[in-house]
Design goal:
Shape: globular
Low-confidence stretches: 1-7
Number of helices: 9
Radius of gyration: 20 Å
Strand content: under 5%
Helix content: over 70%
């Protein structure tokens, strides 16, 4: 029995290694494409920076308490900047006529989904690395809150990219994809964004963990459930 099980275990390891290699190849392709143009990252960074500056100056003039408004401003910047990146997720392949070739490649469709999703998470995270310190400075937040805040931002980004990658694949075949993607995505990610804003407010206000633990549970549950659902539905979406 032991001798017969060894090839099966070895085959499973080789299959998983091959799967990871295919996912990595898709991520690497997206990174190489972005490094050549830098269009998406620059647009996302400038857009998110403008949002933070505009809200900061507007609230500084009219609002009495920036601390209350800061979490919402941060997540508006992240969400709308992420939307720019998600909207371009499959557009490059579509415009160059290679999307069908990617789908016809001898690769499991889930590998394409995970490759695209990881790439989107990576691009959004790179933008967040620059805008988070700027946000902390402009809204007079303590640098000690940055590690916990970064954790919440990563969880929110995973949820945003997980669902956004699926909807981007759905919208890429439509003429109004730039309008259709936000219409489909925003209602779905409301629970994740609400939880992320509440957690961010709790961190900035130094609230006890017990008071925000339910929001952390909601955010983690959203990530797990919707990434799994997107993974299972992706094959059916790209076949339409």
């Amino acid at each position: 029995m032991t001798v017969q099980s060894l090839p099966t275990a070895s085959t499973a390891r080789n299959s998983f290694s091959s799967y990871l290699h295919k996912v990595g190849a898709i991520v690497g392709k997206d990174i190489a494409t972005e490094l050549r143009t830098k269009e998406m990252l620059s647009a996302m960074f400038v857009f998110s920076l403008l949002i933070i500056f505009i809200f900061n100056f507007a609230f500084d003039l009219r609002a009495g308490n920036l601390q209350t408004l800061a979490p919402g401003v941060l997540w508006v910047a992240i969400t709308f900047a992420g939307m720019l990146g998600l909207g371009r997720s499959f557009v490059v392949e579509r415009d160059r006529g290679v999307l069908d070739g990617l789908l016809l490649a001898p690769v499991d469709r889930s590998a394409i989904y995970f490759g695209k999703m990881i790439g989107n998470v990576l691009f959004i995270t790179i933008v967040e690395l620059f805008i988070l310190p700027i946000f902390m400075i402009l809204f007079n937040q303590s640098a000690g809150d940055l590690p916990a805040l970064a954790g919440v931002v990563i969880l929110g980004t995973i949820g945003l990219a997980g669902v956004g990658t699926l909807f981007s694949a759905m919208a890429v075949h439509t003429r109004a994809r730039d309008v259709l993607l936000p219409i489909m995505l925003f209602p779905v990610i409301i629970p994740a964004m609400l939880a992320a804003v509440r957690l961010t407010a709790g961190i900035l206000d130094n609230l006890p963990f017990a008071e925000v633990s339910q929001w952390l549970g909601l955010l983690v549950a959203f990530d797990v459930i919707f990434v799994a659902a997107s993974f299972m539905l992706f094959e059916y979406v790209v076949e339409e």
